[in-house]
Amino acid sequence: MTGRAIRITCRIIACVCGVISLATAVPYAMLRGADLPVQSEWVIFVAILAAIGVFSVLVSFLPRAWIARLCKKDREDEGLFHLPLKVLLSFAATAYLVAVFAHFAPHTWNLNAQVMLALCPLYLVKMTFDPSPVLVFFVLAPMNAGVYGSLALTLAYAWMRLRART
Length: 166
What we know:
Layout: H1 3-32, H2 40-61, H3 64-71, H4 79-104, H5 113-119, H6 123-128, H7 133-165
Helix pairs in contact: 1-2, 1-4, 1-7, 2-7, 4-7
């Protein structure tokens, strides 16, 4: 793939993943309503989902020179978008599989809700009602992949920034 195609693809995917992450934070906020500040574990989920969503959307719209300056790389460096895109896609694929696993796991396993909410933010939907496999494959699992893609993008750029310091 050419450098321009990688940049455009990374920006589009980053924006989509960021919007998905922000949209996923909404059910958490609506679930607790006014009680949200009291329930610290819910505040953490909302804050993390919102922060990585905002970061991903911002990165998708920032000029390439600004991103290069923040990562202390050359503007023409292929790794500026290539590495985050690879990390994003690998996290997204893994998160998709985790969401499908969470749906098809037997009820006798008694999966810990807090752990599953951290691994699969849309496990909240499974706790509320039992979605159909079609809904899981085409809506919930891709949304989970988007959330973790957004997290991967955030981690990839943070890692590039920290690595540039040394």
